[in-house]
Amino acid sequence: MKLRRTSAVAIAAVAALGLAACGDDGGGNGGGAAAGGEKVKVGIKFDQPGLGLKTGATYSGFDVDVANFIAEELDLEVEFVEAVSSQRETLLKTGQVKYIVGTYSITDKRMADVSFAGPYFIAGQDLLIRADDTSITGTESLAGKKLCSVKGSTSAVNVQKEVPGVNLQEYNTYSLCVDALKSGAVDALTTDDTILAGYAAQDANKGKLKVVGNTFSTENYGVGVQKGDTEFCNQVVTALQKFIDDGKWEESVQKWLGPANYTPGEGNPPTPTCQSA
Ligand code: GLU
């Protein structure tokens, strides 16, 4: 559908210039799109190892695999841009990105602004602490502790519901929280267990940080798309289902989360649908 529309626009533009719009040009454009496709910006995380990580000019992780598979299926040429948690709805609403694959939980609140194709993965919220800390065993032991999470995340919202009055600092990114945890500025970082496992497994953090292993939420990851773009949302759902059915989901999970000793919990892989308010 997309390709046909692109060709139609190209032909109309040529016609408007008073040039002869021949059928071959239209076909040529279509062929070009199939090889390279429509250029789109896609939001991912840049600092979450195993999920979305930018290393020089290279992007890697499970979410990156998901984003690339969708692009291949839909003949899109991707340029990745960073989508920090608090900016995701804005990036989609203003059309700065076509879609977001960034540990993005499907919530009713977010569906006031965006639609989701998903879930494509189910995670749970946990705590990351220093390896030598025996005082934190779960949310029940957070009284008097300094906690870090990220602005605009469900993690920050959930933990304040779970532990009313908790001493929470909200940073822009999770990697800043990791630095604060290592320096002793905070006692714990809370977010999805997937993200925490990735940090704990990084060479620089091995033996220094550990995941508590006591989840207290369900995080259904969806691909964020523009609100009400049902056609595109359904195309993404079809791509996600193919990713799962072809065994690519399992392969990617093994490749990127396996080294962190992360095993997906119950309900994985889920069945994606288009979710819109
Ligand atoms: N999955 C949660 C969320 O969407 C936490 C991870 C994140 O901030 O990306 O808010």
Q: At the third CATH level, what is the topology name of the largest domain?
A: D-Maltodextrin-Binding Protein, domain 2
Strands ordered across the widest β-sheet: 5-1-6-13-7-14
General form: globular
The average pLDDT value, as a whole number, equals 90
Unreliable runs? 1-35
SSE topology:
Layout: H1 2-16, H2 23-35, E1 38-44, E2 47-48, E3 52-55, E4 58-60, H3 62-73, E5 76-82, H4 88-93, E6 99-100, E7 114-123, E8 125-130, E9 146-150, H5 154-162, E10 167-171, H6 174-183, E11 188-192, H7 193-201, E12 209-211, E13 219-226, H8 230-245, H9 248-257, E14 273-275
Parallel strand pairs: 1-5, 1-6, 9-10, 9-11
Antiparallel strand pairs: 2-3, 3-4, 6-13, 7-13, 7-14, 8-11, 8-12
Helix pairs in contact: 1-2, 3-8
Bound molecules: glutamic acid (GLU).
The site of glutamic acid (GLU) has 12 residues, from helix 5 and strand 11.
Structure description:
It is built from nine helices and 14 strands. 43% of the residues are buried. The chain has two domains: 25-123 and 220-275, 3-Layer(aba) Sandwich (D-Maltodextrin-Binding Protein, domain 2), CATH 3.40.190; 125-211, Periplasmic binding protein-like II (D-Maltodextrin-Binding Protein, domain 2). Mean pLDDT is 90; it is low at 1-35. The chain has 277 residues and is an alpha/beta fold. The chain has a six-stranded mixed beta sheet. A five-stranded mixed beta sheet has the order 10-9-11-8-12, sandwiched between helices. It has a three-stranded antiparallel beta sheet with strand order 2-3-4. Helix content is 36%, strand content 25%. Helix 1 crosses helix 2. The structure holds glutamic acid. Glutamic acid binds at residues 85, 102-105, 150, 153-155, 191-192, 219. Glutamic acid is lined by residues 85, 102-105, 150, 153-155, 191-192, 219.
